[in-house]
Amino acid sequence: MSISLAVSCLIFLLIALRQWLPDKIRIWHIMSAGAVVLLAFGEITPQAALAAIDWNVIAYLFGVFLIAAALYDNGISHAIGERIVGAGRPRLAILIFVLATALTSAVLTNDAAAVIGTPIALMLARALDRPAVPILIALCAAVTLGSMASPVGNPQNILIASHAGFTDPVGTFALWLGPPTLIALALAYPWLVRLVMNCRPSGTIQPELPLPHSEPRAWPAWVGMGLLVVLVVGGSLHPGLHVPFGVASLVAAAPVALFSSRRLRTLREVDWPTLIFFVAMFVVTGSLHDSGALQQLLGPLVERLGEPAVTAAIAFVASQLFSNVPVVDLYLRLTSGASTETLMMLAGISTLAGNLFIISAASNVIVVQQAERYGQRPFTFWQFTALMLPVTVMSPLVTWLWVTALGGG
């Protein structure tokens, strides 16, 4: 076994066992340590590590994280949470929460939706007098399912859309992955609402979330979010206006960075640990690719990576070990000229594979880190897997059937 593969497996193991590690150790610490070890052992050179990082993805995430921080700082997240809680009936509140989170994920990426949605989930848990865990589970499921239908719904979709060069990425994803997204959400909701409603009242008052700072200028956050939607959706509908997703995100975040009255504080509140997690993850991925370890493991399947059925199987299994973003990154490096059906299968199944383990999707990591930031103890590794198993089984099956039927397979 190569050092790169051994370190990747060790990263997975340590994250799985993190509940028994000291509380100060975060998931991004583990991933960063893995990248440092690979650099120290010469498994990847500093130049190759820099080249392995997809800066388009990092730029996109930085922009949406900055906008998300501004939304929270202006009290917009609290206002949304209060509006959802004010729905009255618990089941209706959960439905609104799931749908709103899924829509936010499709428009602003699952990672930004996880940042925005975590405090809302904790507010909902407090209002319903329920433990936070089942509502955080519902957040993770909605974030993942909603992100599948959009080219900017998650980092792996951004990678695929950039790689494929679709003339109409929004329309392509909507056609191939929109219907299974809606079906999966409809089937997942009864299970998610059952998780929340069947939990006994917590018996203790959930701690209040820290109130947002008093920000006199709310318009930069609103303008930033509007610009992001216009640049992404408008650029897709009018290819002549298309700009790289990373550039679009930075342009959209410019009003927050330039005109917010407390821009430095907002910059400090960006989810820097998750950005570091992604940078380190790309380094680990680059090392794995350069080592040739995965190519050896795949063996004859390397020649069949363009087949949708093979793509679905590898994307699901590999995402459990290496997380879906690096798996897609590696897959695109190993293939060329893949069909739209294959790329949509890769996007859908790799995304939905994130519902099985915490490490399978970075948005799960974000929810854990955000909950801990607000002083809450989130779900454990195996608790997450047990509660998400029905969604994990159902949603990839629905997606596989739809993509196969649409592709004429």
UniProtKB/TrEMBL annotation:
GO terms for molecular function: arsenite transmembrane transporter activity. Its main location: membrane. It is a multi-pass membrane protein. This is YbiR family transporter. Residues 19-331 form the Citrate transporter-like domain. Keywords: Cell membrane, Membrane, Transmembrane, Transmembrane helix, Transport. It comes from the Bacteria. Belongs to the CitM (TC 2.A.11) transporter family. The chain crosses the membrane at residues 28-45, 52-72, 92-125, 132-153, 173-197, 218-237, 243-260, 272-289, 344-367, 379-403. Pfam families: CitMHS. GO terms for cellular component: plasma membrane. It is found in: Cell membrane.
